[in-house]
Amino acid sequence: MIDDFLHRWRFVRGMTLEFLTEATDECLDERLAPGFVTIREQAAHLAEVQGIYQLALRGEPVNWDRKPEFSPAADDRATIAAALADRDRELVDLLDGLRPDPTAFQIDWYGTNLGLSGFGAVCIQHESIHHGQWAAYAAIGGHRRPNGWLLNWGL
Predict the structure, then answer these.
(1) What is the pLDDT along the chain (155 residues), one digit of tens a residue?
(2) How far apart are CA 94 and CA 10, in angstroms?
(3) Which of 21, 73, 105, 139 makes a 20 to 30 Å CA pair with 148?
(4) Cβ 2 vs Cβ 98: under 8 Å
(5) Cβ-contact 23, 43 below 8 angstroms
(6) In this structure, are residues 18 and 127 in contact, taking their beta carbons and an 8 Å threshold?
(7) Rounded distance, CA 133 to CA 128, Å?
(8) Which residues pair with 108 in a beta bridge?
């Protein structure tokens, strides 16, 4: 179960990093309208949210007020990518700690009881929702999507 999740997570995270690395600054900074956040801001948000989700894997309360603890130190590509890599290293360590009995992990996720598999799906779905937004932002702004995105999703 853990290895399956990590395999799927690494694929999704790889797509995040591919977009962050290959998109132009104009694309990353596209703001479709007032109130919309940029792709760059969303990428930083992914590091924050992953940090919050991983509180749950530590057995700590999920406290959204703690997002700033997990914010990248700056908004350049390299710093955001480094923050994502830090979260991923933590994720592997946390999951390794659950290997003796992965079924022991349970969380009440806003009224739904989830095990590790369901919680992993939440993590992947959140990141994937942002991928859909990024594809739309890029298309609306007339920006090229990365090759892997074109090949994997036919964009």
Answers:
(1) 899 999 999 999 999 999 999 999 999 999 999 999 999 999 999 999 999 999 999 999 999 999 999 999 999 999 999 999 999 999 999 999 999 999 999 999 999 999 999 999 999 999 999 999 999 999 999 999 888 888 887 76
(2) 15
(3) 73
(4) yes
(5) no
(6) no
(7) 9
(8) 113
SS3 assignment for the chain: CHHHHHHHHHHHHHHHHHHHHHCCHHHHCCCCCCCCCCHHHHHHHHHHHHHHHHHHHCCCCCCHHHHHHHCCCCCCHHHHHHHHHHHHHHHHHHHHHHCCCHHHCEEEECCEEEEHHHHHHHHHHHHHHHHHHHHHHHHHHCCCCCHHHHHHHCC
The pLDDT assigned to 155 comes to: 63
State both tokens at 56.
């749950």
* Contact status, residue 19 vs residue 39, Cβ threshold 8 Å: yes
pLDDT 10s digits, 35-63: 999 999 999 999 999 999 999 999 999 99
